[in-house]
Amino acid sequence: IGLASLGASDDYIEKLATCYWFTVEFGVTRQNGQLKAYGAGLLSSFGELEWCLSGKPELRSFDPEKTGLQKYPITEHQPVYFVTESFESAKQEMIDFAATIPRPFGVRYDPYTQTIQLLDSKRQIQKLITNINSEIRTLIDAFNKF
Predict the structure, then answer these.
(1) Is 71 exposed, middle or buried (0-12, 13-18, 19+ CB in 10 A)?
(2) How far apart are CA 13 and CA 20, in angstroms?
(3) Distance between CA 109 and CA 2 in Å, rounded?
(4) Is the dihedral of CA 93, 94, 100, 106 positive or negative?
(5) What is the model's pTM?
């Protein structure tokens, strides 16, 4: 969510922050047909957790485009929670949503250096493609040895 916010307009940052609220803080998922809480705000508040699973609040399917528009109270129990089908599906939906955010450059997290790279020149992107192709060739070569 943080990476997706780079270069985004204030409207998109607000949507991303709201998605954060309804996932990282007040996230609910379905596991084997049962609702399970995973958000820190839910797990740290017995009263909120009990309310969430009571059947009284409204439960909606998680969709970042719609979730990002939902207003929420910060001083009372949530009247609405968004339910993900799995952590993996929520992650993919956020990745897909982030890809729709207009920005004048690309962004990439480099796990090797633990830095964020702004992809804002053709030369830089070509160099990255060359490096990734080299790594793929190395992986294919290692894979073919089995």
Answers:
(1) exposed
(2) 10
(3) 11
(4) negative
(5) 0.83
